[in-house]
Structures are given as C-alpha cells and as structure tokens.
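> tool_call: predict_assembly(chains=two)
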Amino acid sequence: MKTVLHQIAFFLLLGLLLSACVSVKEYQKAYLNDEEMQLGERKAAVFEADFHSYREGAVGGTIGNSGSGCGCN
Amino acid sequence: MRLQLTVVFFLSFTALFAQQGAPDSLSTGKRKLDRTEVDFLFSYYHQEGNNSAVTGGTGTEKLSDYASIIVVNVPVRSNHNVEVDFGTSYYTSASSDNINPYTVSSASSDNLVFKLDVTSSFTDTVNRSTSGFKVGVTHQNNFGGIRAGGFYSKQSRDKNRELKVQGSVNLDKWALYYSISKLYPVELKNQGNLVDTDKRYSYNFSLAYKQILTKRLQLQLAGEMIYQTGLLSTPFHRVYFVEQDQPKLEKLPAHRLRFPLTLRMNYFIFDRLIIRSLYRFYDDDFGLQAHTINLELPFKVTNFFSPYPFYNYHTQTAARYFQRYKEHTLNETYYTSDYDLSSLSSYEIGGGIYYAPVYNIVTFKRHKKKRGIALRKWELRYAYYRRSTGLYANIVSTHFGFTF
C-alpha cells in the first residue's frame, strides 16, 4: 500500500510540475529540435528492446515487442 | 491498486492538456519529408545461459540471432505518409532443436522469422493533429499472427504539448501448418490434447503525453494497458515436479493484464552534453512487478557526430507461478520454470556512435542535375547484457539512413 501511495504522489507531483512550466517559442527550440533530443528510442535500439521483452517479464512503453509474438527464442 | 494508478495517471493527462498555450507559431519536431527515406538496420545477438525453459529450467540457453529491418517511408502527399517495415530474423538455438515438429535430432536448430508492417498516417496542420492506422503480419516456423491498430495525436496551440492515443489488436496462432501437439516435448507427444486453444489474442491501449518544460528540457509520460487471452504458456516448455520424474507441459492462466507506465526525460545539459533518461514501472496480474531505468549520455563532438555510453538496469519480482527445476508440486493449478518470469535483476552496458552531417555522408548520383541517393546518417551500437540468473549476451547493431 505504501508503494502505491508513493506512485500516486509521484504522478501528482509530476502533474503539478508540468502545469507550472513555461511556454517555449519556436525560435527558442534549437536545443529541443536536435535529433539526439527526440523523445523515444533510437531506431538502432529496436533489437535490444525486443530481446529485453523476451528475457524479462516486463513489456511495453518502449519500441520493443509489446505483447504479441511467441517470445520463444 | 492498478485501477487507482491508472485513473490518477489518466486524470493527470487530461488536466495537463487543458492548459492554454501561446498563439500559433512555426512547426516543431520532425522535419517535413520531401524525399523517400529508407533505413537499413542490422544486428547480431548471442546469448549463453543454463536455465532453458524447454528443458524445465535446466540446460543450455545458447542462442544466436541475425536480424535485419528495412523501413521505407514514402511521402505520398504533403499530408500523407506511408511507412513499410519489413523485418527478418534468423536464429539458431540449441534448445529449439527439441521442438522441431518432425524430427528431434542434432545439436542445434534454426528458425526464420518474417515481419511486415504498413503504417499510413495523415497530418492536419490546421488542427495540429496526426492520425493513422497500421496493419501487420508475423510468420515463423511455429507461430504466426496478424495485427491492426490506429493512433491519433494532437499538439497544443504553442506546440509545447502533445497527446497521443493508440490502440491495437494482435491475433496470433501457434503451429500454423500442423497440429499444436507436434510442438509438445517428445515424451508428451502421445498424451492427446494438452492445451485448450492454440490461439493468443493481445489488445493494447496506450496514452502518451509529451511536454516541453524549458528550452533544454522535455519529457514524455506514457501509460499502456495490455490484455492477453488464449494460450499464454509455451507448448514446448517442460516443468518438472517434486513427486515424479515425468515432466508436464507448462501451464499458465488464460488471461493476463499488464500495466507499464513510462517516464522519459531528455535534457540538453551543456552545449555538448545531453542526458537521455527513462524510468518504467510495470505491474501485471501474474504477480510480476518491475522497475527499469535507462540512462544515455550523447556527447556532441561536433553538431553531427556524437559518441554515447548507455546503461540499463532492470529488476523484477517473480510471477507467482514460477518455481525452479523440480520445485513445483502436483497440486498446483498453474506452473512454469521459465526464468524470464523469475525474480531477477539485470544490467546492460554499452556505447554507440551517431553520425549525421547536414550535407550527407556520401551521395551517389547518375546525373549532375538529379538529387541521387544519399547516405544521410549512420549509427553503430554495442551492448553487453548480464542477468542475475547467469544468462549473458552481446549485441551489435547498426543503422544506415538513406534518402532517395
């Protein structure tokens, strides 16, 4: 139960943080538009994400396999 | 517990997206495609371990996998893109030899996997939204499936926030061309029908919220719900019991509900250093709970060349149906000795280089006036993976990005 309360508190705090953020204009986005800054995984990491989803019990939230496939290799 | 978490998570999304932004401005993020892009990806993966589920949690897990993916992204119109992903994977596995439906013979076996996905997406610049659908098919020696899904995303007026909703359905089937009983371990082949179905259905729904926080910091929160039903066990995994020497086929519940929650945060900390980070919390009704962190530090030697180290740590509790070799008892309803569902921690450490100059790495032209084919970017990665169960792996992958 304590863990659950911690998780809820974490996401509520995150929500508060997000609602307090500033508006960034387009001409101020030089750093954010850098290819390395794009959110999401690199294309070259797709193979690692796939084997993680087979060798570990957790899936989802990444570009790897998210529930389908036999995972039997 | 999971319901509470999901409600809080989704409510936070809704509240956040209700913020009002600044007036319209220039577009952001991905550059608009004016040429066809083709990506070639290759990898070599090798693992060693001694807890194969095929032999009941003991025996070699030695496996080598050669995989490739070709991604073709075609701008059909200025607002319509079609992407075709074609992937192949050829693997040799010592334990897979024991599941050959026609022979049980030599020291190793090989398998070939094909995957094809087609995605069609439409962008509405006036409404700042993108929508689309995806269909796909997977085929391998003992398994096959089809899938379909759709997605919708919308940006805020100042393009500092984006909400994306996705849903998909996967319809998979074991043993496409023969009876599933041919996949059973050899000593169980003549025991009649040991499973209720040879089908597995997966339904995914996800919600992702992206937020720019400052000129150098942005994050993404994503929640996913995965519901699986059908044959969730593997029809060639053996389980050994305390009371007898004869194994049984792995048995798992016919339903599984899985909840991954992911937070990504990218920070351009100095002019040359970026922090790319990920945290994932995972929970499911098999009793498996996991935490994963990933950290990557690209260092921009120039604007177009960046080497980077990365580190990934994962820890999970065991599924309630897992026991080691000969630790299960016959009075249990569900049982598995698959170490992928055991209590474990793992780390992965590695590095890569990424090179993408503005005027391409090299351009191949037949005529001076034509644009030709350009190698636009190249990436190379290596990783070493180690699991607390003793399994370890090495993987090398590379990516060539062309424009036509």
